[in-house]
Amino acid sequence: MQYQQLKCIFTFPGDSDAVESIDISSDGQTLVSGSWSDGTIKIWNLLTKELKQTLAGHELAVSAVKISPNQQIIASGSRDETVKLWDLNTGNLKHTLKTYGEEVDKEIACVLFSLDSQNIYTATEGGSTYFWDVNTGQKLGNLGIMSTGCSHLDISWDGGTIAGIYLDNLYIFDPPRKKRSAITTGFNNCSVAVSPNGETIYISDNKGKIHLWNSQTAQRTVTLTGHLGRVRKITISPNKQILASGDEDGIIKLWDLNSQTELCSFTAHSADITGLVFTPDSQNIISSGDTTIKVWESKTI
User: Fold this and answer.
1) Is 70 in contact with 62 (CB distance < 8 Å)?
2) Residue 69 Rama label (left phi>0; alpha psi -120 to 50; beta)
3) How far apart (Å, rounded) are the C-alpha atoms in residues 193 and 277?
4) Of 76, 87, 200, 204, which is most buried by a Cβ count within 10 Å?
């Protein structure tokens, strides 16, 4: 498999400050972005490239956005210590989830829907991770993690494995909250991606490396090298062939998941890669960084 130099085929205008998070609907028609500057969420039509709606309600920066698998709900997490659930079709606010923990850092670091869209997991920078009923907005419990500094959560495509990274710790769960493994990785974790079958956990660190862990044995198997700085985001293509990674220098790399080799590398933004997603057909990559969101053509040659 070979890749030509990826071509930017469209640039969405961003804000005067950084776009901090992006996500795409499962049908590939809707993109949502969270703003660091004004606490808004923007809904974009990916087919027409037009801005459909701007949602306002957070008091501080939006640090995480996610579209539910059933394409009904947008979840937005903010530094104002709340998660808001919005109706994707109408833009109406359905629920505001507030974590009243004892930790100092209660800003929201990550949000994650269950595969059936009935529950949502929320994690704070202080380390508290809860799960909630999406329909009622009621808190159902917590994951019982005794760690600080959550940066990312991910779930396997079969819904059977959840992985969360907290400073130098990796936690693996069987949903909804049965802890399978707790691992000290030995490095500062930045992002996590779970393979479609849940067997492999991909973790990026602040030294430019991506580590592969076996979720059943809790052993590290392979380390990918190539980035020079902190790898902010990693994501797996829907066709299960490619891993994309984005670093603090605005560089994106693509990796062949079968051979575990680097396919290509290119400069996408002038600052940190803050968001990285594939379109459902795996033909395009969407990235956010600096003040823009870009769509990249990722066809093989």
Assistant:
1) no
2) alpha
3) 11
4) 204
**How large is the average pLDDT for residues 57-65?**
95
- Is residue 295 within 8 A of residue 21, CB to CB? The reply is no
What percent helix, strand, coil does the chain show, rounded to 5? Answer: 0, 55, 45
- 30 touches 88 (CB < 8 A): yes
> Beta strand pairing status for 150-155 and 261-267?
unpaired
State the average pLDDT over residues 256-261: 94
Rounded mean pLDDT of 99-106?
62
Write the CB contacts of 167 (distance below 8 Å, at least 6 apart in sequence).
147, 148, 149, 188, 189
C-alpha to C-alpha distance for 195 and 206, rounded to whole angstroms:
21
Query: Phi and psi for 112 in degrees, rounded to 5?
Result: -150, 130
| Angstrom distance (rounded) from CA 231 to CA 253 | 10
Closest CA to 71 of 18, 106, 32, 19: 32
pLDDT band at 301 (very low <50, low <70, confident <90, very high): very low
Q: How far apart are CA 29 and CA 289, in angstroms?
A: 21
CA distance 78 to 64: 7
Q: Please name the residue that has the structure tokens 């670091």.
A: 109
SS3 219: strand
